[in-house]
């Protein structure tokens, strides 16, 4: 027996809305687009979160590496200051100050070399909590020294160095933008 009912034959793509309404999913193309946009947004947020975490890990690793290098430099400087203080055999204020600087540089160098930047930050926070007045005075002093150094810097030489043509790997000269 042949089917003689007059049902239309579909030759095109299936009706998205009718198929999705049967499955309990969104009922229109707009709802599908919203759903997909939400998925893309969540995926983007997840990727940005992972990128931020990766960046923090890399930044901390680089900061630790630089802190350890600085620690080694400070320990070397402490050794040199100590040799300088005990070189001539003279007694006096200069020798005492040099010996004290040597000792301080050695301690800070060892702290940086052994604990990295994180340990130094923790010690700085502890110092600020225990002696806030000394911390503020030290910060003001560091600010004054930095300001004086910046003021005495030869800004014309820096500007000229920036404007000077930089070598290009292709061999053509180019100018840096300031």
Describe this structure in words.
- It is a single chain.
- By secondary structure, this protein is an all-alpha fold.
- It has a domain of 96 residues.
- Helices cover 75% and strands 2% of the residues.
- The chain is built from five helices and two strands.
- A two-stranded antiparallel ribbon has the order 1-2.
- Helix 2 packs antiparallel against helix 3.
- The longest helix is centred in the N-terminal third of the chain and has 57 residues.
- The chain is elongated and about 95 Å long.
Alpha-carbon distance between the two ends: 87 Å
What form results from the Cα inertia axes? elongated
Number of strands: 2
Quaternary class: single chain
Largest sheet geometry: 2 strands, antiparallel
Query: SSE order in H/E notation?
Result: HHHHHEE
Rg computed from alpha carbons, rounded to a whole number of angstroms: 34 Å
The percentage of residues in β strands lies in under 5%
